[in-house]
Amino acid sequence: MDEITRTQRKTQAYWLVDGIGEVAGGTALALVGALLVLSSVTGTEPFGTIALFAMIFAFPASAAVVRALKTRITYPRTGYVKYPEPSGRRRAHIAAVAIVVAVVVAGLARSGGAADLNGPLWQAFVGAAGAAVAAVLVVRAIRSRMRRFFLSALVVLAGAGAAIAYDLGMTGGLGAVWLSLGIASIATGVAAFVSYIREHPVAEPEARS
Amino acid sequence: MSPFDFGGEPDRLIHEPARLKIMTVLSVAEEADFTYLMHETGLTRGNLSVQLTRLEEAGYIRIAKTFVGRVPRTTAALTPAGADAFAAYRMYLKRLLDATN
Fold this sequence. Notes:
Helix content of chain A is 78%, strand content 1%.
């Protein structure tokens, strides 16, 4: 890899260097995932409803926490970088993937035997979801040169495998994938944060001019 | 065409290592502040100021001074001319590498 590409990748990965995003996002994921698993295991609907509300509020809340913590902790130490908004083309790709997933889920729901959310079709869907999340983490690990995301990928695969082995069904299975991703993200994020703080004392502030 | 003709001369303003690093960082960021650029380039505060000024005078970057609360923040961002110049510099390097492989 040439030095220009290396520097570009390093700048793009700077958002991940302090682990703050992982800890905050991981906490939201673990919360929602745990509620979904509880909903499946106990068969109690309120957990599912609470999970829905958690989804609506936890992720925006975690984003706000990340912004506040980076302003207080990261930017004074190693500086501030603002990233460009995703291009229209990239947004279209993301939307296309979401539509494909929705069509697949709708197709599974209409297919024979899919009324049973514990059936083999849904188990396969949970496995595929776990594999897809793990693949994204592996790509992130390679592009950012941060090996901790390989570990997160393994934990997610283990979570998906455990969900299938324990017959958690679709709701519990997807909850297990989110929970394992959340726990892995919290653990790797905390480790990254501790390492970051040790390596980077607060920089001398700019002089007022 | 001479074997040493790589389609023009490299932009010497960008070619200098510290300024190249500044331009490279800004090519993937909407903006970056003084502290981050100091970390990436390893330059002293004064030296970085000089390099940023040269790039600003050439129209390749724009510099903004703001406050975050009571803390001053100086940020730099590529201008469209700077983005074009950086792209042209990368093309020059690519032609150079292709010619020598």
